[in-house]
């Protein structure tokens, strides 16, 4: 996989337009579908509502966001209403996030957030554009990346190093069980997964996850039975092979 951009691919003079042309051309030429491993993804026409790329083998769709700096806690996205409507759709796109270096004109990081990690809780409504704006009243959205578990951030390229394709495909398959659940059910699962991952170790106890009770209560103020809900999510994650039951009150993250 070549990480450098081909400067001749861009007919534009604007830096922003050049960057878009370079990054999109790079994905078309070098990226592969993490769902089926297909080595070629086709590009949608410009200004498609949400998706930018399509895998011709398995029909997975991808939206590309690229920028020079690393992505922070939030990622600006398209129209809020459209994004919410697409959450439960089968063709809701996966998210490709690319960081590039303008001096070397090359990819530094490329990670994928699979679409089954997208739930209503990670989509934030932005303020309407001012009356003086060209699209006055338009309401955009933010993706709250900080609420996505680390298992939902799969790197193809990390710090300028291409990761082995077989590992990327394995990490993708590891969480596909989430697609069988509704967005509402997935919200709790993803937040408990993030709590478990934040402990920073493979072996953990039920009491350690219970320590997030107040945090989860703040996220779901309508739920008055947080501890039973935590146990329910851990049982589900165990049944789907994401974690292992070690002994009473003890669990282990699958590697």
TrEMBL record:
Keywords: Endonuclease, Hydrolase, Nuclease. CDD domains: DpnI-like. InterPro entries: DRP, DRP_C, DRP_PD-(D/E)XK_dom, WH-like_DNA-bd_sf. GO terms for molecular function: endonuclease activity. It comes from the Bacteria. Residues 184-252 form the Dam-replacing protein HTH domain. This is Restriction endonuclease.
């Amino acid at each position: 996989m070549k990480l450098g951009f081909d400067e001749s691919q861009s007919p534009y003079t604007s830096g922003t337009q050049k960057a878009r042309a370079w990054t999109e051309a790079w994905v078309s030429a070098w990226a592969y579908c993490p769902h089926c491993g297909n080595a070629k993804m086709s590009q949608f026409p410009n200004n498609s509502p949400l998706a930018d790329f399509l895998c011709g083998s398995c029909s997975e769709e991808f939206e590309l966001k690229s920028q020079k700096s690393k992505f922070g806690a939030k990622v600006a996205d398209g129209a809020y209403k459209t994004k919410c409507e697409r959450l439960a759709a089968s063709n809701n796109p996966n998210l490709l996030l690319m960081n590039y270096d303008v001096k070397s004109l090359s990819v530094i990081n490329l990670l994928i957030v699979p679409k089954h990690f997208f739930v209503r809780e990670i989509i934030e409504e932005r303020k309407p554009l001012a009356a003086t704006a060209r699209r006055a009243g338009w309401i955009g959205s933010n993706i709250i990346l900080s609420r996505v578990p680390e298992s939902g951030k799969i790197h193809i390229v990390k710090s300028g190093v291409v990761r082995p394709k077989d590992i990327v495909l394995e990490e993708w398959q590891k969480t596909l069980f989430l697609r069988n659940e509704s967005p509402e059910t997935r919200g709790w699962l993803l937040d408990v997964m993030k709590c478990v991952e934040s402990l920073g170790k493979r072996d953990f106890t039920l009491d350690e996850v219970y320590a997030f009770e107040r945090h989860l209560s703040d996220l779901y103020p309508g739920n008055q039975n947080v501890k039973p809900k935590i146990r329910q999510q851990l049982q589900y994650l165990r049944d789907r092979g994401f974690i292992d039951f070690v002994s009473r009150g003890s669990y282990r993250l699958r590697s």
